[in-house]
Amino acid sequence: MTLFGYRVPMMASLLVWCILWEIVGRMDLMFILPPFSDVLVAAVDLVQLPSWQSATVTTLRAFFIGMVLSVVVGIPLGMLMGRVKIADDLLGMWVNIFSSAPLSAIVPVLMILFGFGENTIIAAVFLFAIWIIVLDTRAGVRHISPSLIEMARSYGASRPALYSKIIVWAALPEILAGIRLGLIRGVKGVVIGQLLVAIVGYGALFETFSRNFRMPQFWALTIILFAFALVVSALIEWAEAKVEFYAGVR
Amino acid sequence: MHAAIVRNDAVPTNVVSDAIVEVRGISKTYSGVEALRDVDLDFPRGKLTSLLGPSGCGKTTLLKIIAGLIGADRGTVAVNGKKVSAPGPERAFVFQDFALLPWATVLRNVAFGLELRGTAKEEREAIARRYVVDVGLAGFEDKYPHELSGGMRQRVGLARALCVDADVLLLDEPFSAVDEQNRRKFQEDLIRLRTNQNKTFIFVTHSIEEAVYISDRIVLLSPRPGRVSRIIEPEIDRSGDPDRIHRDKHYLDTVQEIWQGLKQYVE
Amino acid sequence: MSSGSGVGGAASLASPSRGVQAGRLIERPIVLRLVSIALFAAIWQVAGLIPVSFAFPTFSDTMVAFVRMIADGSLPTAYISTLQPLILGVILATFAGVGVGTLCGLSRPGEWLLIPVFIVLQAAPVAAFIPLVTFIYGIGMTAKTLAVIILALPVIVLNTYKAVRNVNESLLVMNRSFMGTRWQEVTKIVLPDASPVIFAGLRLGVAAGFVGVVLAELLITPTGIGDLITFARSRANYAGMYATIASVIALSTVTLVALQWIEIRVFRPEKRGG
After folding, report:
1. What pLDDT shows up at residue C198?
2. Would A5 be classed as within a structural domain?
């Protein structure tokens, strides 16, 4: 949007909403909505608390392990489905089902299979993130121009060379897009998992804050989470832009 | 000037007596690039005039200014003596990329101009059916665009433009997205179609052969800035077998003549 | 599908996996699908027989439990309680989402003001809000409906917005050349052209709605399907628990496929038959 001839960046409107939040909060209409400034103060206090720091470490570790697992499993699976028709026929249906299924319903199963602890959270992240990575990798492999693969074959590329020198790189833009969407889903997985397990990491903090009606802390934690999700996806988007300069030529 | 090509004694000029479209002093600059500079041009009523030139000569820009789809920086366009600056019922446009509604049948696409004018469904479909037959698409009324070849899609685009009964048809490189064989057939059909439609055609093309083959009058534009460099009236007899035209000496000479003139603009 | 590619910059951050999810379920040949299902059931059965865990029932036990829960009425009763807020929430989110998305796609100030909010909500784990909802609305139907709307709305708004924003430019010019009004432009060009991407958004919204309602029932309101899952777990009735969960996933899949079928039959005549 342009205002008085200046281009106002789109995300700037979030400032307007923050100001509105401050005003509504000051009017004291709802106890669940404290002024934005109180939330910011609470956020500053929160990050100094040992309980927040340990919860963050737990959450980040579960998120990281779950994401690594889903990338490590998801990309080969997607490549398999992209290259081998029978694998695609047999697995495609299930990957599609799970990519849009209400996975929150499965978390209770994870809780009894993996215990009320970090393993359940890791499993939740994995389960939320992997399907979109598989789907996008598959789409990327499918979009590779056949002449590129024929070129590699005609120059005598071995099968490992074909995969490591051609297919991974040609499908990289889609794979990165899949990882970015997987990260967003993984953040949702970690939060939903922790909310349901309720004694681990941020889930426990949310539980404490909401039970004791500590609204500024509750919102501070929410904002930190949102900021984390946005930063993660912005980082991957930056990596995608780096890849784009050659991908665009295809 | 070139007596071999221009049979009448007078050299064709920018201004003619019975003009339906009058372009006066049109200039247009796009983000620093001068697309058109001070163009004066008349389009005679009932004729097919081609705007021909290399890419970047502003021929499509000029056509869209006449259509009222983009505004000029300076100058005026008058149709039937009235100044225009927006699309009007007396002009109809045929698009390079067809611009058909993918979710609508051939019949609805052809009738779409009338639909926008609020013509009753039965009436507009009756009119549309007639033009579907005229452009050679009988039997395809209920097909969807993706079921048609490029040439057939553009026939739908042409029928849509004919349907609104405008005096002036504006065609923006209508055959550029049509394959070669279909283009030849379409050009022949266009010549035939013109004899029973009393309309003025303004035709943008970058193909010299196409321009000479179908035009009464060819306006050559030079690039950067776009200006009228020459006007040619190839007097080719199109009454007989259309294939004969391609072997006609006069046709071949004119093509060669124009190519010699345009060569300097090609890198 | 060609439409719906990124709007660039910030907005593409919310791109919902190019709308492929439910798409390919319909196209597969029926035999391969049956083989695939049989294989899945067989692996489940073997895993249950080993067993991989004390809490992992076989496929056949789960099926028996499923039939029993339908027969004794517990599953149908739970679904009545779950589907009401789900359907209501999805309908409200659809109307609000398509409306707001269209407005944002057509108006620059609207885009500037609202789209960043929905980008944030789409990328962020809004599930964290669900406990909050109970503070205001208690644990009834309203809270569940709101949970559905919170999760479904952002993706519907963003898909609609993107579709409207990326409408085929040449069709707009065509509309203008035939003197179509602004209203005709929106109703005859923009919305039909945007409808495939809008429908993809609706399907994602329904999927998110299922997540929302189940989550709300697991977290806060002990009713419906969520309660059935929790209750079966507390009684160590794992077959019943798995049967309930499998039924939710099956229902959401069937709903998504049905939505796509309706979309093609009713709204996209040119895709019929191929």
Report:
1. 92
2. no
Top mean pLDDT of A81-85, A200-204, B174-178 is at A81-85
Would you identify the CATH topology of the domain C57-268?
A: MetI-like fold (1.10.3720)
Provide the token pair at C14: 């919310």
A17 inside domain:
no
- pLDDT tens for residues C230-274? 888 888 888 999 999 999 999 999 999 999 888 888 777 777 654
Residue A3: strand pairing partners: A6
Residue A177 lies in a domain: yes
- Per-residue pLDDT, B110: 94
B99–C178 C-beta distance less than 8 A? no
Interface test with C, best of B63, B84, B116 (most C CBs within 10 A): B116
Cα–Cα distances (Å) from A223 to A15, A37, A181, A188, C211, in that order, read: 14, 12, 20, 14, 22
Mean pLDDT of chain C: 84
Chain B, 136 to 195: residues with Cβ < 8 Å from chain C are 144-146, 164
| Segment B71-94, tens digit of pLDDT | 889 999 999 888 888 888 889 999
Q: Is the pTM of this model over 0.80?
A: yes
Structural domain for A129, as ranges? 35-247
Tell me what the mean pLDDT of segment C209-228 comes to. Answer: 87
CB contact under 8 A, C111 and A1: yes
State the total domains in chain A: 1
- A202 domain-assigned: yes
Q: Name all chains with 3 or more CB-CB pairs below 8 Å to chain B.
A: C
Q: What is the ipTM of this complex?
A: 0.84
Residue B258 burial (CB count, 10 A): 21
- B45, pLDDT greater than 50: yes
Q: Where are the domains of chain C?
A: 57-268
The CATH number of the domain holding residue A215 is 1.10.3720.10
Q: What residues contact residue B116 under an 8 Å CB cut-off, 6+ apart? A: C175, C178, C179, C180, C181, C184, C188
Amino acid at B100: L
Average pLDDT over residues C204-215: 91
Instruction: Tell me the residue length of chain C.
Output: 274
